[in-house]
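Hello Y.,

Per our agreement to keep a running log of every chain we model this quarter, I'm adding this entry. I've kept the format consistent with earlier entries: sequence first, then predicted structure.
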Amino acid sequence: MNPSHDSHLWLESLDSEAAAAWVAQQNARTESVLDADPRFAGLRADILAHLRDTRQIPYFAEHAGWLYNFHQDEAHPRGIYRRSTLDAYRAGSQDWQTVLDIDALADVDERDWYLDGVSHCTVMPERALVHLTDGGGDATVAREYDIEARQWLEQGFRFPEGKNHIAWRDPDSAFVCPGWKGAPLTRAGYPREVWLVTRGADGQHGWTQLFAAPEDAMMVAAWRFLDSDGSALDLIEASDGFYRKTYHLLDGALETHALPLPDKAEIEAYIAGDFIVKLAEDWNWRGERYRSGSLLAVSLAGLLGEGPAPQLLQAPQPRLAVAAVETTRSLLLVNLLDNVKSRLLAFAKQDGVWLPRALPVPEGGVVEFADQPWQSDILYYSYSDFLTPGGLYRLDVACGEGECLRQQPAAFDPASYVAEQWQARAPDGEMIPYFVVRRRDAAFDGGAPTLLYGYGGFEVPMLPYYIENFGPHWLAKGGAFVLACIRGGGEFGPRWHQAAQGAKRQVSFDDFLAVAQDLISRKLTSPAKLGIEGGSNGGLLVGAAMAQRPELFGAVVCEVPLLDMLRYTELLAGASWIDEYGDPDDEAERAALAAYSPYHHLRADARYPLALFTTSGSDDRVHPGHARKMAARLLELGHDALFYETNGGGHSGNAGQDDTATELARVLVYLYQRLMD
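Predicted structure for the entry above:
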């Protein structure tokens, strides 16, 4: 395909009647193939019933003794925000108080509202900013809500729809980075300015500009850190790119002061007077060299050259990464990924030095922080693995006492299956780990229908998780599930990510193809029985894999993907990912993008598997034009392709349970048809 001529450019229009007609035609055709399958209705009903099972864990955030949870069911498809007490939760009681009904709100406002999040004011949690999205996109409105009165504050904070960043500073002020229409935005469409909005009488709030970034920046954000002694520290983050940022301290006179951290550093927390900093590049500071991947404790005085040197909390290791950081009233918590399995450390500061100890948590799977109530040493966390249903745990970190509050119901009997970690050798010799979930008695004759899932970007790790729907609807039918931990992801820290960043993107694809070939070489599966799936950056991954090695696969599920890498910066939030992929306006970087851009590498003389492309018309992050044009190009070249575009859900699938069940059932039917029938 000649990159200078794009015959399907018209499909990028979100207002064109012709494009809408094409989408409707493709949707109807896909429904006739998948939704009309006799298995579809039963699958959808089973998945929906599982989603609505009242035994599912209601995860929560604790504020002032109340446990707040967002819940969807048949009576509340958009959901309710509700709360209960810890005693009632422990007892398994359904004693929930409805705080806000999103279905009722949508009816009153006549808007397609979904809840994007609720931000409680830390020191006055009965006041909250409610973030609502129309149709499930990234753009939201924010309204101040009185939890106790169950009503909107007439003269409270209200901010228009946009990709805004809004955070409480205290009960009477908020940091606001406007992303709404008419506000100064970056090239990527994100906020450029930071304002302090102070509550005023009769809704006449005061606005003070604190910071402005240049147009070629990516975005800005601001928030307040509260230390355990009650002191506060205000910080502005200005991102020059997806991974390059500067931090600015706000003083009492509302003046900003840049902190002398390296560009590729992330402030993860602030506790006991120390910033907790994770490095994604080497840092030479005051005569010492701190390596990329390190986790450091750095005092403000130390950054100003007047205090102690940084303390190394965790040194980088080849197969270990810092997954997450949290603070309690007195402790620092670090969640480590050790060969893609979780370990949890608690650090206590004694005589100015942080000392670690291991925490008693389940081993062999993945621990994720669920909540940490302010001014306590309590941690709520979840644990699961491929064959173990998720559990929600409460741990008093200070004394080590813990309990399992809830266990997700088992969706299938795990006795017949095994989850293993295998490795494949990439073309450059690197060993690529991946997980395989299969029947214990798999024959290894190439006959197992196998779904290989991957992502490989933005330093996001692929972690084991309980495959509650794929257990009964895939494993039980003889299928295998594979999760690839390829470079570009965050399984082993910045080194693993940067090995496939920018012009080195092909490394990620090569890793994924190596895993596919390894599965075939081991005779777990064969090309006709091997399917691949990925979404967003993972959609780019499977699109490139299909374009480069179509003979390896019998099925491709490509969800909300990037596929036209020569125009991606011109579409919605695409310009914010230049750090990840490269800039098509730069001649050398454009050549690297053109070398793999899936849309531009489709050929009439190739034999592609029948692929399923899905997207959302309300996706305001990755443009639906990518999936539309890829399907249209395949059809134009004489190949077959399936395409489906939903109206709602946005990029993250922020929709009702009905829609979630429908979309998963459609994918499963497609996989049955392609790999099992």
